[in-house]
Predict the 3D structure of the following.
Amino acid sequence: DFADPLGQAPDTEARETRRGAVGIAQRLLHALPALRVGALLSVIGAVVLFFAWPSGVHTFPLWGMPPAMIGTLWMATVIVRPRPSRFRDPVHGSRIAVIRTAVAILAIGGIVALTPEMIRDCLSIWSSVLFRTGVNTVDLIAIAMGTAGLALLSVTDILLRTLRAAALPPELLHKRWWTRLRRPRKSVQRPRGPRRRTLTRAALVLAPSVILAGAAVFPLSRSKKPIQRLAPPSAAKSLPAYPTSLAGKPAWIKDIKNALDIAAGAAGPVVHTADGVMGLNPVDGSVLWSYVRQDATYLRLRGALTHLMGEEHERTLAVSPNHRYVTFRMAGPGETRDGEGIGQSAITIVLDTITGQVLNDHLSDDGPLQITDSAIMDGNTIYSIGSDVEMWDFDEHDVDPFGRATPYSGTAGHSTFIINIDTESENSLDENRISYLRLSLVSQDDFKRIHTSAPTAMRIKSPNAICIDGWTAIYSDEAPTSTNGSFNQGWEMQAVTLDSLASEAGSQQQKHDLGRGVTINVPASMTTGKLAILPGTPSPSARDSFNEHSFCSWVDPTTVSALFDPSTQKLLPMDQPSGLIRAVGISPAGTPDSLEARMRVAPMGGGEEVSFTIAPGSTFHTPGSFRYNPDMKDIATALQHYSEVSALHAPGANIIILNSAAQKFHTPHTYRLFGLTEGAATG
């Protein structure tokens, strides 16, 4: 042997280096098993959290990815697992060791690179969903914890197997765990003193779970609950009655910014804005109750009836037939920027219109939204109001509500839902034949039985249902044809409830004659809350076909031939004032070019028109603009010509609605509300 200049043999230095490496490996071999157990415990804890604290959000794409990707990389190291005999093979050992070590390094590198990205995705979606919807998706926190624990488990296992193959003698590595059970147990005398090694291992076992649990405390404690202000209990004891006459001036004026929709509740008007929903006191316009969900995006109702401000505006509220409940939707986890592709697309809320109390709040897959006096149909599922209990799931019974037909959303029957719509018409070549609907109905008393309605009135422009406070109109002589009526003369019509159409005894139940008409005047019905019938008329607007029987070219002085009140189940006399509004408009107070304006309100059934001065700056256009209906056409006709003023007959007050800023369609608007309270009593 030749010594180097320092007096040390080269092989001696190599042996010292190997000995040092083996020492490090031996120390790691003592630590890694404990760390692996700790990682396994953290994974188990994450799985328990995932199932014990579910948010209800569909997170399959996220929880399926970490096991798939990390498991694939880990499995690659198992397939080419290192063996001591091959590592020490004098002929092929070096090459095999390099290959297997390279696979292990690549697998560990891949896991280390992918894990932060997967965790970041989970936390980003969690933050976005919480911010936009208020839903704390604990599932995503559990997935992030499980991903970190699974990555640590895989890395420690790969390192442990690689180090064992490289550092342990083959005879020790090949011993199986069950061989230890066959060995006689002997008492082992352990040296006294501090049990540092035991404590270290215990710390390594607990460290992953403690660290991950600590990191999860912050997101788990976060919440973004809606801000609620409830009405006092006395609000339910003295509900206002509907006004029976028109006041000469408003009792109150209120500006509503970012308005989306407005409807009549049981205690007064209910207003939906981009910030939330609020119930107004009809006496003074103050806020009775409010529901605010910050940063939420509210969704339009597909297939809903006409907005009070016209067809170009979108409805977001649906009110129960008794006006006690209101339902609406906001964008769900699947509609957030980071959550696209996971989770449900909507959240459905039901509020009590008297108190503002939240009665239902659940995730939804969108679809039609209908409400009765005690339940809602949310997509393909029916829930009980006040409990979120699933009463019926159409998917489980192979029924697809509406199928490919246009869905209907809005007020349903008192205890009946519309699940499909079929459009029919007279079997003739006459291009002027009228179309009508046959509704498929299910009653809450028996969801299994589907009832088909008699020929029912439909909207003019779209083949969809019309339901006003649980009532609709049917044609008396079965299907309307050219032999029993015409567009000029109309057809005999009757008012019926959806409940009676879905009842076995429906034909024996009382029906209310409405006289001759063509269909239901939806804008007038929405404004008054009554079933308003569109008359048959010889005017040019209705002479040709049903599609031309529209308000765009209407020239007759009236668009209503009969008014049926669902609350009293009586026809209202058309020649007597009833507190309902026929037309509303704005005219110059002086000369045609004057900037001073007066709001004019014409009652239904004749009677004196009332008017009052409105403050300068209330209108966007000049007061004489056609956008403000200065000719005082019926509301239905005026809205067809893009009028910016409308009305709502609500408990306690007639509400005049002015789109004061005249924003573009399909955007939140600024409404100025005028409350006319005369003739309203407390019931």
Notes: The chain has two domains: 10-177+196-221, 233-676. Residues 10-177+196-221 form one domain. The first strand starts at residue 227 and ends at 229. The mean pLDDT is 82.
